[in-house]
Amino acid sequence: QRTINRIIKVVGVLIVPIGIMLYLSQSNAGTGFSDCLVGTVAGVIGMIPEGLVLLTSISFILGVGRLARKRALVQEMEAIEALARVNVLCLDKTGTITTGKLEVVDVIGVNDTEKERVEAVMNEMAFAFDDVNNTQDALMKYFKKSSRWRPLEKIPFSSDRKYRAIRYDQEGCFVLGAPEFLLGEEDREILLKAESYAAEGLRVLLLASCDTITVEDGTVWGVSPMGLIIISDCIREEAPEIFNYFASQNVNIKVISGDNPATVSQIALKAGLNGAEHYIDANELPEDFEELKKVVGDYTVYGRVKPEQKQNIVRAYQANKAVVGMVGDGVNDVLALKDADCGIAMAAGSDAAKQVAHIVLLDSDFVHLKEIVSEGRMIISNIERVSSLYLTKTIYSLLLNVIFILLGRSYPFVPIHLTLISTVAIGIPSFILALEQTETVTQSGFLKHVLRVALPGALTMVLNMLLIQGISIVLGFDSGMTATYNLIVAGMVSLMVLMRVCNPMNKIRSILCNTMIVIFVACVILFPELFSINSVFSWRMIFIAPLVIFTYYSMKYLSAIVHFLLRKHI
Asked: Helix 446-475 vs helix 544-569: angle between axes, to the nearest 10 degrees?
């Protein structure tokens, strides 16, 4: 949208002075008022990419409608392009790779603590907090509510602390959380046991008694392990298919989780995520942003990640020129969702996450992300193709205006010529291409991709028009014969651009191109007077064949040059 608006602003500023100068240059060449006016109108009209904004808007609107049918609410229109160009997709483990339906599979007592004692404490503690999440739901389903103890103080769960704690009036203090955040080297044996479960893809919680807890700063003191609670999470059946799809689309999946990195890595490996064995505990990531930029590319899985770290990881990938999508559902994802190029929230998640997200998955199902990314790519692919057609005409019209002002010659087209060219090579094709459902999109950005097609086509047009002017002078063509050459060659160049835009060809595109060629040829042969040209059945038309060959090779070599320059300098 920014690029298209910028083009319109530039053209809008240039139209007036170029129109005046074009009229004056033709007047000085001795052309009559009527011909000067017609030539000036043709030059000015050609510069305007009429229909581009309309078809771009239609593509976006239809895309939003199709996304809505796929249960995705688009809250910011520009997210569609970001979604199409995403090459790094960050997501949490729970609810994406896994179903999010956690289940307690075992309770183990440690340090001579009986399993029954662990269960008795958890029967109280599992129901004592209001901040319910997936883990809490699993605990509440497994343990039985007793409510015999009276709680005095509570420390709710925090993604920074990775634990929650409580103090009862007679039973004392207890803490429940990640073993590696609560235990030290003196409890190495318990840590190794927890790590062995984590290596199997299981989540491990530690229940411990403690001497005191401090609600003000959330600290606990005198931790004494009591038991381990083992929780499993089912991997989605469709997860391998989704990962294979994103791999085929050159999208790198990064798993950013608050869980143990070894656990997340094992689950991701089982789900078929390539590179999931490369994991790191976020506490080991460098705090310096420049250093973080250098190391983020080495890892696929991040564990024990804090909200601020999620945000920094997203920013680090962006700083490395990646287009980053972030999938999240909790308050701890808000910062990362806000900074991502495309933030995707689950409807079942927190209100804060939904407010800052660009797209909301209404059924909270990660499975549909594949379809949504595909839809985004389809929309942008259509817009890029349509824009290439319109901007080719804008560029060559601008160049021809300047050149013919300097040459002091009549503009090579009249409005009726541009009507025919615009209809068969831009208008009808752009409407069909804008509605076509395909999925090819580049990561290089809108303008660069469009110029790869539009600029060689425009330069080929300019070279051909100059060559025709030289031929007409040498062979003494009258204005009618020169106009005939101008129209036929210009239509031929425009149709070649259309065929380049339609590559790779499919059935619909092939029919479209062939139909447009037939319409153009029929109009030129059957209605020469209508289009202010001579009959094509003349010996002087023998130079069309060499011009066709020149057009083909000039566009081919100019395309190679433009591609090289764009790759090196833009």
From this structure: 150
CA distance 422 to 425: 5
Q: What is the DSSP string of 529-564?
A: TTTT---S-SGGGGGHHHHHHHHHHHHHHHHHHHHH
- Phi, psi (deg, nearest 5) at residue 327: -105, 125
Please classify residue 516 by burial: count the beta carbons closer than 10 Å to its beta carbon, then call 0-12 exposed, 13-18 middle and 19+ buried. Answer: buried
| Total count of residues recorded for the chain | 570
* Mean pLDDT computed over every residue of the chain: 87
pTM as predicted: 0.73
pLDDT grade for 445, boundaries at 50, 70 and 90? low
C-alpha to C-alpha distance for 438 and 59, rounded to whole angstroms: 13
Q: DSSP label at 505? A: P
Angle, helices 33-47 vs 415-422, to 10°: value is 30
- Band of pLDDT at residue 94, cut at 50, 70 and 90: confident
Query: What CA–CA distance (Å, rounded) separates 521 from 492?
Result: 10
Query: What CA–CA distance (Å, rounded) separates 306 from 282?
Result: 8
Q: Are 273 and 300 in contact (CB under 8 A)?
A: yes
Nearest to 11 by CA among 58, 35, 43: 43
Please give the Cα distance from 203 to 231 (Å, whole number): 5
pLDDT at position 212 over 60: yes
pLDDT tens per residue across span 286-314: 989 999 999 998 999 999 888 889 999 99
What are the structure tokens assigned to 412, written together?
């090579």
As a whole number of angstroms, the distance between CA 428 and CA 219 comes to 69
Q: How far apart are CA 533 and CA 544, in angstroms?
A: 15
Tell me the C-alpha distance between 364 and 236, whole Å.
14
Q: How far is CA 242 from CA 232, 324, 327, in A?
A: 22, 17, 14
| Of the candidates 136, 121, 229, 115, the residue with the CA atom closest to the CA atom of residue 167 | 121
Radius of gyration of the chain (CA): 33
Helical (H) or strand (E) element with 429 = helix 428-435
Which amino acid type is present at position 300? T
Closest residue by Cα to residue 491 from 564, 417, 441, 427 = 417
Q: What is the arrangement of strands in the sheet containing 163-168, beginning at the earlier edge strand? A: 98-109, 224-235, 203-210, 172-177, 163-168, 151-155
Please list the residues that pair with 208 across neighbouring strands. 175, 225
Q: Please tell me the distance from the alpha carbon of residue 146 to that of residue 130, in angstroms, as a whole number.
A: 16
| Catalytic pick among 35, 92, 137, 160 | 92
The answer to whether 341 is a known catalytic residue is no
For residue 442, pLDDT beyond 80: no
pLDDT of residue 29: 66
Mean pLDDT within 83-105: 83
Distance of alpha carbon 128 from alpha carbon 491, whole angstroms: 77
Nearest to 276 by CA among 301, 297, 253, 244: 301
Question: Of all helices (H) and strands (E), which one includes residue 73?
Answer: strand 72-74
